[in-house]
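Hi there, hope your week has been kind to you so far. Thanks so much in advance, here it is:
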Amino acid sequence: MGGQAQVVTFALDDLLARGEEVREVYVLHLSPADPRVRRALDQLADEFAGDRYGGRVCRFRPWVIRTRAGPPLVDIRDESDADQVWMEVYRLLGELKGQGRRLHLCIAGGRRIIGVLALSAAMLLFGHEDCVWHMYTPRAFLERARDGAILHARPEDGVRLIQVPMVPWGSYFPALRELTRATAGQVVAEGIRWLEEADRRRCEQVLERLTPRQREVLLAFAAGDTPQEVAERLHITLKTVDTHKTTILAECRNAWELPEGQHLSYHFLREKFGPLRHRLRR
């Protein structure tokens, strides 16, 4: 959160209206020495007076992001600050998930990079039961509500949460969750390594099920050839290329466990097999 208390109350009101049970609200923010942040925190403290919100038990938990030395972080000016934000967000989400909590992460307000880092941490720590949300607020109403002038939207104001599709990679690759001391860059690099390894295994699985000629067609597509170029390279007809392509994509659909309704084309082969084609030739 930056200086806009309403992003918290708008999101909470929407979740409660959906029937979600929310007992605690954590608000990540930079230094409260910023007058706008301080004012927003004071507004929220009033909304959650007595650990209640709208007649319900609900606790307000402001979470200030701190520097390595301890004082609150004033701004995110370089990679070191970004890494510190990553560590703080990861620590908070990790502690909450360690308690068995179901979490809703709303990315709205404050520095955009905090939202980006929070999303990357969520992809490692969240399970399928957790949700990430983006808040949509019509521009005209956004201006009227600015700086907490309006803390509760009516249905006709058009404010709503939109669930963000997210793959909880940590659920599929639990070892990624052990990177608690890594920087944001190291976590991203490790995630890419895991994904590349998973794709390599799937590529090898597909190749094992193909005939030698089908493998030649696949590797030609992986090199970036179009169907016509594959036909010319291998001295076969375009119809034969299409027949082989259909078989290859069917094997890919099985290996990647893709739904039948998802369209696949030869571009998929270049995307998945292209970076690995030199290793796959061995």
Summary: The first helix runs from residue 6 to 17.
